[in-house]
Amino acid sequence: MVKYFLGQSVLRSSWDQVFAAFWQRYPNPYSKHVLTEDIVHWEVTPDQKLLSQRLLTKTNRMPRWAERLFPANVAHSVVDPQNQTMTTFTWNINHARLMVVEERCVYCVNSDNSGWTEIRREAWVSSSLFLELSRNLALPGSKAM
């Protein structure tokens, strides 16, 4: 079973400011949910894109039982300074057999105001366990499929 979420926002900051803030965001006193952020790998490609892989250990804004299940995430990012885009892809590495939460964010210059930045966030939550449970448990008034 996969659930899909989509959100789009406009940040009233330039792409350069958003890009700089992205790399300087941890540690900071306002993000106490992030315990560690370690860069595992980074490289600049021949076409001048910055690729990175990071490991984040954090507590999440979710029920306490879920915080214990999903404390670590892997984050990949691709920064294209020439086209002023940054794409991040994050997913959990703990208990992936139970549930996988994946998020992709794309940051780019706003088409209406070049001093602003657009962000498109997509998330996928998939779980074969919950699919099996939903198939085997019939809710009152529902039909089994």
TrEMBL record:
One of its GO terms (cellular component) is mitochondrial intermembrane space. It comes from the Eukaryota. Residues 2-145 form the PRELI/MSF1 domain. InterPro entries: PRELI/MSF1_dom, Slowmo/Ups. PANTHER family: MSF1/PX19 RELATED. This is PRELI domain-containing protein 1, mitochondrial. It comes from Microtus ochrogaster (Prairie vole). The lineage of its organism: Eukaryota, Metazoa, Chordata, Craniata, Vertebrata.
